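pipeline/complex-builder :: batch 7 item 3
reading input block
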Amino acid sequence: MSSASPVILILGAGPRIGSSVAKAFAAKGYKVALASRKKSEANDTANELHIQSDFADPNSVINAFSRVTASLGVPSVVVYNGAASTSNPPNDPFSLQLSDFSRDLNVNTVSPFVAAQQAASGFAQLPASSSKTFIYTGNALNTTIIPPLLALGVGKAATAHIIQSAAAAYKDRGYKFYYADQRKDDGKPVYSAIDGDAHAELFLELAEGKLQGPWQQTFVSGVGYKDFGAA
Ligand SMILES: NC(=O)c1ccc[n+]([C@@H]2O[C@H](COP(=O)([O-])OP(=O)(O)OC[C@H]3O[C@@H](n4cnc5c(N)ncnc54)[C@H](OP(=O)(O)O)[C@@H]3O)[C@@H](O)[C@H]2O)c1
């Protein structure tokens, strides 16, 4: 593969979404960097990098960007897919321990903020023709509550705000920022019925699009983007 191949970095890459997205972008000629707690560089190949990272520590995002940039090049597509969710009794969200709340906030919001910062600073070094796309895997919690999931909801809602702000602020520079949220046909959350291939299809479409589209990419498997309005 030529050194001009584009690079995708998937932060929080696992067997469902991460693996489908990696396969779809590799098929389009991308070199792929995958970061998560269980990754090992022993599995590296010329076109696929494995970076051991725990996004409970936001510095691990900076390390992942340094590694991918040095080994494969500046990523033109960055996906933040990791999440942390300490559940709480539905009738007592304030029983959450501060240590759990702040670790989850690091994984769901602080590390994604650092990732978006790093992505934008890399985009500035790329040629005009590069994709320059940042995608955060969200869910419906930026528009509704699910009582046992306060910590996850706080993180998703805060990061939705970051994505919405970045989409507006950087669109004239050609950088695109998206909050992707798979839903059922009727707009309800998919919960565990996540479709990795549907994510990959949407992410490719967003990466290949020339202009910033709606920052909040609610989508349905087999349909694609669908606007459900405010919940
Ligand atoms: N639209 C919806 O309603 C909906 C429903 C379910 C999930 N989601 C979202 O989808 C995403 C995950 O989907 P998935 O499980 O199918 O994806 P996946 O790519 O199969 O797995 C995500 C990977 O993230 C890694 N990860 C978790 N915590 C991490 C941490 N602290 N540091 C580094 N890596 C970490 C885990 O790997 P390691 O164990 O190796 O770290 C995990 O395998 C999340 O953002 C979640 O909120 C949305």
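note: The chain has one domain: 7-225.
queue -> next item
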